[in-house]
Amino acid sequence: MQYQPPVNGNLADPNRPYVNPDPSNSIEGSVPPAEAIEHPMREIVEVITYFLGTDANPLPATEADLQQLRKAIQQAVTDGTSDALRRTVSATLGAGFWTIRVPATLAAGEVSFNPALGNRFTLTATEALTITAPDPMPAGGSARLELTMDAVGNHGIAWGPEFRINNGAINSEPNAVNLIHMEFSGAVIDVHITQRAEA
Which CATH number, 1.20.120, 3.40.190, 2.60.120, 2.60.40, labels domain 94-195? Predict the structure, then answer.
C-alpha cells in the first residue's frame, strides 16, 4: 500500500501532508482521494481473509464482527511460530526446529519420520531396523535421529534406497548413542553419522 496524498495542496509534493481547514488563515482543508479510503480497507480485509481462513477457503470479512482484525493479528502471531507468518510455507517448523525431540515411528522393524511433527527424532533400537524416508519427503532442510542401542546392542541397521551414507557408521555396541544427521535434497537424503562421546 502506498501513501495517498490529498488531491489538493502543493501538488508538486508527492508527500504533502493532510491538513485541517483554517479559514481565518485562508488554509483549505485537505481533500482525500478515493484510494486513501479504499486501499486501507482492502489491505485490512486481505489480512482478515488470509489469516482467519486458508488459501483454499479464505474467511470473508463481515460487518457483523468488528473484532476480525484483532483476531487475524493474533492468528498471524500464532502462525509465525510455525511458518513465519506464511501459510504457504511448510508447517514442519511449527513442531520446533531443532528444539523438540519427537519419537520416531517404529512398525514391524521399519523406522519412519513424520515431518509434520518435527525434525529431531529419537529411538532406542531393540531389534534389527530399517530406516525409511519420511513421507512426504521434505524438499529440503535437515533432520537428526538420535538412535540409541539398548543394553543388548548388536542390532543391524539397514537403510532405505533414498539414503546416501557420506561418512560415519552405526555403532551397534550396547548403549551406544548414534547421531544420524540427514540433509534433504529432493529424492536424496545425505547422511552423516557421529557418536556421542560417552557412548
Answer: 2.60.120
